[in-house]
Give the backbone structure.
Amino acid sequence: MQMRSLRVLLAVLGCALCAAAAAPMARATDLAQPILLVAKPELSEFYSHTVLFVRPIGNGRHMGLILNRPTPMTLGKLFPDHGPSAKVVDPVYLGGPVATDAIFAMVQAAQSPGGRSVPMMNGLFLAVDGEVVDGIIETRPDQARFFAGFVVWQTGELDVEVERGFWNVLEPDVQLMLRKSTDGLWEELSRRSRGAI
């Protein structure tokens, strides 16, 4: 994707998320609120065994980040000339198939880290501007998870997927979403969605 197209997409996404951010939290089955999606065992290919944090962005559309797909890449490997990136040992996560050439930071914070950062839920923001992401890397990388790419559902697509039984839907939890290791996360949440925990 060309950088100009990416900037336009991020601007649209940021505006849509800001408009949706004022909505209060509700039950996990309400797709008009932030949710966790846990892939059902029969879901195959790209989304097999994934856990996603999903946020409505207005007009029946949603965006999300895959939480449990660490890559072999670190920020230091991606940005070898940026000293603070080399100090971040955690992997960069594959957030989804859209805009994989951009790095985003999901950061736990009481207030916005700046720029066009978008409130995802109480105490959690998504930083999309390069300068803001750099600042998070430099000052508080331990409060963030870094992603390449995200997922987008067009109007009504997620509703159809949930109705067809592709996903279990759970309430989001900030601590769970920023857990250092995501090993076993899908299995844990699959059991929870079946009431086995």
